[in-house]
Amino acid sequence: MLGKTKFLTALAVGAVATGLVMPGxxxxxxxxxxxxxxxxxxxxxxxxxxxxxxxxxxxLAVKRVNEMGGVKIGGKTYKLKVKYYDDESTxxxxxxxxxxxxxQDGVKLMLGPYSSGMxxxxxxVTEKYGIPMVEGNGASRSLFxxxxxxLFAVLSTSEQYLAESINLAAQNAGKIGKKASDLKIAxxxxxxxxxxxIRAGVMDDAKKHxxxxxxxxxxxxxxxxxxxxxxxxxxxxxxxxxxxxxSKGAALAIRQIAEMKVNVPMLAMTHCExxxxxxxxxxxxxxxxxxxxxxxxxxxxxxxxxxxSQYADLFRKTYDGYxxxxxxxxxxxxxxxxxxxxxxxxxxxxxxxxxxxxxxxxMQTFYGNVKFSKAGNNIAKPMALRQIIDGKYYVVxxxxxxxxxxxxxxxxxxxx
Length: 416
Prior knowledge:
This protein is of the alpha/beta class and 416 residues long. It has helices at 2-18, 48-67, 91-103, 116-129, 163-172, 193-208, 227-236, 246-260, 272-275, 277-280, 308-318, 327-346, 351-359; strands at 30-31, 34-41, 71-73, 76-86, 110-111, 133-135, 151-153, 184-190, 212-219, 240-244, 266-269, 289-292, 301-302, 306-307, 362-365, 368-371, 384-389, 392-397. Helix 2 (48-67) packs across helix 12 and helix 12 (327-346) crosses helix 13 (351-359).
């Protein structure tokens, strides 16, 4: 008997390892009146801060949908829930957990992880099993040239994140007595897929304007010090410093720029809100330009949360410690809403039918418009830039959403 048990255990482990799927219900996991979505998120490790924002976004959506009656399929109403695992900010672990969610837990509809790197590790697994994944935190454009049919992203792709900062600098070059083609650009980008895609977008736009790249540094994944890059910035005096290093990189850059009194006319970076730089470094973070997928001031709305501003108010009321709602949370909430809409239009929780409904999505949420290309990326929503002024965020680009004109050049440290 013991030998038989060992054999069956080995068989089960082998099935997971080789990707074999045992026959089962084609529908998403449905127990009684509940539909279960799966998610492997970073609760520990380098992405844990944004993993928390992502989970909060998912949980708020589930709570709201359930409060409003749940998901309607064929005259019956279902509640939503999410089964979570900690991917430990490790791609291999993330892929392993998706296998577990599919093969052991029977989950057939997935929400995405945080970061492009983690999404890259998990997408081949969901694709292999024909499991739709809706995600809001994997922006790397390389995710959308693999021919995936089951991956859908509600956010704008990463090459768009900070490209607008280059256009904004070009438009305002005259304020520092220069032409756009005279401007010098410094890049400090983490050596990961997301940040390197951002670099590519910035490089493309700088080239269009004839700008010169004077610093092009790749920052290590374990970001603890930027003094080497910032020393070069002080020596070469670029007009624009562009930084991308997730939350840790944003906090590090603001801290060390202030400590070293680095003066640049324009500083643009990612993950300001997620890193809470306006709270951690009051005054020191002022005039920073921050890429954002979404802002509470934007004129988007939906039937679940109302306006973008109303969503932000509810989020802050629900979760302590947020003065600004990070877009990572908002796009995570939107991912759940897109799933709900697709399930209801499909009239089924069958993964293939839900996948086809997702591909035909055309809707507005409080987060923005959503329409997917054939590659699965959202082609209906622009990026925006916000500038921190007196500890508050104001949209300054694109002009359609602008609340204020950009402050350019930034005041020097002596004038602050």
